[in-house]
Amino acid sequence: MNQERRGVAGGGNWIIDRLYICDRWPQEETLSNIVREERGTGGAPYNCLLDIAKFGLYEGDEAIGLEAIGLIGDDSNGRFIQSDCADHGIDTSALIVTDQAPTSYTNVMVVKDTGRRTFFHNRGANALFGPEHVPVDRIKARLVHFGYLLLLDRMDEADDEYGTAAAGVLKQFQDAGIETSIDVVSEDSDRFPLVVKPALKYTDYAILNEFEAGKTTGHDTKPDGKVDIEALRASARDLLDLGVSKLVCIHLPEGGYVLTADGREIWQPSLQLPEGYIKGAAGAGDAFCAGMLLGIHERWEIERSLLLAVCSAAMSLSHPGCTEACTNITDTLALADKYPFQPSII
């Protein structure tokens, strides 16, 4: 790794979420009332970079460099993303504007009383995002987070040399001295081995949820809805064996699990949140990931990174949007003093 590099880049899906808070989930051809509307952020790079910026660990000249990599439309949503990034100190010089498709967006229907979400997604410009849109030679970051695999049509395409186009891009990052991290969308399909496995050969850090890890490796991590610890461990071991070079982190509602390449195993329980606290889970996974990415960039002990990750996820749960609730690192970590941890499952 090039020690002179600094900063985190996020590449992949850039999405505007249109949040509709509804009084109930209707049957087909029946009515549900929208009680509130909001515009929010979506996509792994967008959410994670915003969350890292909001941690506010450094300011001014010491600020961690944040860089956006992706494709947006020449429209109001695209301009909102550019303005939002500028407000949070995120460099958008590698966020390319196209007139061939609209900025990707998702209509997120959130049931008010439960926080349960249903998504209607327009893939838009993200479907056109390909290797030619990634200026690896211009990226200054030490670490790039790339996602979501399985939701980037061009990047998910087969490649004769690397397996997928995304895998080839990840190799370019590594060859340039940039560490790589990946995330995957929780798609209910059998495409995981075909699309995700090739990328693992060029991945330093895999940060996935338990469903994604299990679908990639073939393990059922939650039979009957209860965590199977041995299946979780086996998934992490298999991901390392498939090529992840430094660590695998699997997050789930019960907490976060890390297995390192040298065999270290760390478990951090999540927080026990009071009834009524959770307003939506749309950004919890990316908030968890942001905490891990900051810790990885700063070379923190894994335990510290995991603590920030579970607290950041808990903070995110207090708002139906993906990034609106996320805040400075002091207030985020203070949740661990306010609420107890769940019982450890390991």
| Estimated helix fraction | 25-40%
CATH-derived topology: UDP-N-acetylmuramoyl-L-alanine:D-glutamate ligase
The averaged pLDDT comes out at 94
Helix and strand element order: EEEHEHEEEEEEHEHEHHEEEHHHH
CATH class category label: Alpha Beta
Major β-sheet profile: 9 strands, mixed
Strand content: 25-35%
Q: Do you know the CATH architecture?
A: 3-Layer(aba) Sandwich
Low-confidence stretches: none
Give the terminus-to-terminus CA distance: 33 Å
Kindly name the structural category: alpha/beta
Number of strands: 15
Count of helical regions: 10
Numbering strands along the chain, what is their spatial order in the largest sheet? 5-4-1-8-11-12-13-14-15
Radius of gyration: 19 Å
CATH superfamily: Ribokinase
Shape estimate? globular
**How many domains comprise the coordinates?**
1
In short:
By secondary structure, this protein is of the alpha/beta class. It has helices spanning 44-55, 76-87, 165-175, 192-200, 210-217, 229-241, 284-298, 302-316, 329-333, 335-338; strands spanning 8-12, 15-22, 34-42, 66-73, 90-98, 104-111, 117-122, 143-149, 158-159, 163-164, 179-184, 205-209, 247-252, 255-260, 265-269.
Explain how this protein is built.
The mean pLDDT is 94. The two termini are 33 Å apart. The protein contains ten helices and 15 strands. Strand 4, helix 2 (76-87) and strand 5 form a beta-alpha-beta unit. The strands form three sheets. Strands 5-4-1-8-11-12-13-14-15 form a nine-stranded mixed beta sheet, with helices on both faces. Strands 3-2-6-7 form a four-stranded mixed beta sheet. A two-stranded antiparallel sheet has the order 9-10. With 346 residues, it is α/β, with parallel strands linked by helices. It has helices at 44-55, 76-87, 165-175, 192-200, 210-217, 229-241, 284-298, 302-316, 329-333, 335-338, and strands at 8-12, 15-22, 34-42, 66-73, 90-98, 104-111, 117-122, 143-149, 158-159, 163-164, 179-184, 205-209, 247-252, 255-260, 265-269. The radius of gyration is 19 Å and the shape is globular. The longest helix is centred in the last third of the chain and has 15 residues, at 284-298. It has a single domain (8-14, 43-104, 124-338), classed as UDP-N-acetylmuramoyl-L-alanine:D-glutamate ligase, CATH 3.40.1190.
